[in-house]
Structure to design on (207 residues):
């Protein structure tokens, strides 16, 4: 207590500038370090994330369809694909923070019709395929601007597998064809051969 009185007396006898010099300093808002603004991931990082999500999507959908075909046949697989594919895409989108979808130059579901950017990429891929590029190697990633927003977009080609020919090939069984006509009256996604470009996984993330 005695020391405190001595300190107060000393400060009182000083001029104002000198008094400020001996007063203990407290941290101000300006002195508080701020976290730097996080920069967006690099193109390579985003591409790897997109590849990982695409792989998860493809593996899960393939497993569902294979299991259904083996257990119940291709007609039931069409119905399962109709509900499972968008469900898997929506779940991955929520888990990963990306927009996740599929598209094609020949769509089965009109909801999957390509937008302008996707149409451009699909057209470029078809030109590359005509020059001998392997379908499985086709991938495209880019920064684009949509509505004033910076968006990273990624597409990865889906080759037509032998499994797909049950409902996407040329020789489709009667019950399968009938189910397709009932569920997808505007279906364009038939007549494919194994190895051809079936469509693409299409992902995007806004920043």
């Amino acid at each position: 207590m005695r020391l405190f009185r001595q300190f107060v007396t000393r400060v009182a006898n000083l001029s104002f500038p000198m008094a400020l010099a001996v007063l203990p300093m407290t941290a101000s808002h300006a002195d508080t370090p701020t976290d730097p603004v996080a920069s967006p991931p690099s193109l390579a990082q985003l591409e790897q994330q997109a590849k990982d999500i695409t792989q998860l999507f493809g593996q899960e959908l393939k497993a569902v369809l294979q299991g259904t075909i083996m257990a119940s046949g291709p007609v039931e697989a069409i119905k399962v694909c109709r509900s499972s594919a968008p469900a898997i895409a929506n779940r991955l989108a929520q888990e990963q923070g990306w927009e996740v979808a599929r598209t094609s130059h020949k769509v089965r579901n009109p909801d999957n019709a390509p937008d302008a950017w996707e149409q451009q990429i699909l057209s470029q891929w078809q030109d590359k395929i005509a020059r001998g590029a392997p379908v499985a190697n086709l991938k495209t990633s880019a920064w684009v601007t949509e509505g004033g927003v910076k968006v990273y977009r990624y597409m990865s080609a889906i080759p037509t597998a032998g499994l797909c020919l049950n409902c996407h090939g040329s020789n489709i069984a009667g019950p399968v064809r009938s189910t397709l006509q009932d569920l997808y009256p505007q279906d364009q996604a038939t007549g494919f051969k194994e190895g051809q470009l079936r469509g693409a996984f299409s992902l995007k993330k806004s920043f």
User: Anything to note?
Assistant: The radius of gyration is 30 Å. Residues 14-32 have pLDDT under 50 and may be disordered. The CA atoms of residues 109 and 172 lie 18 Å apart.
